[in-house]
Amino acid sequence: MGHPVGGLSMVSRRMPCELVVFELLPTARGAIAKELVDSYGYTQSKVAQIFGITSVAISQYVKGLRGGNPYIDASVHRDEFYQHIREIAANLHNGADLIEELCCLCKFFKESGMIEEIYAKQGATMPLSKCMECPRKNI
What we know:
Largest sheet: 2 strands, antiparallel
Order of helices and strands: EEHHHHHHH
Low-confidence stretches: 1-11
Distance between the termini: 36 Å
Number of domains: 1
Structural class: mainly alpha
Strand content: under 5%
Helix content: 55-70%
Radius of gyration: 16 Å
Shape: globular
Strand order of the largest sheet: 1-2
């Protein structure tokens, strides 16, 4: 059980950002890495440099040992999610900024309802906390 905060268990109530960081971004990073390697011929070292992580982590992403999420694969938004992944990989290949691209993906997570869907599939009993406006005003 989580520590009570404001009388609520952290297990039964989560912030949208938690779901993005722990459930969605690892899968997105893995899928983007795999797309860059498979579709654009990037080396794992080059992808690691773009992501600012080790090539070992990229290798694990590409092999599917890291970053998968059954909630995303079962989501009604799955196809749309992977379409965004392909677009992000293309944008990165054309020089886009990784952080800007991930922020746009986060916007998709919120606007599509994917965050709420995954939260509900996890068996949440409390309402999802309201998401604050993203501080990155340029997206």
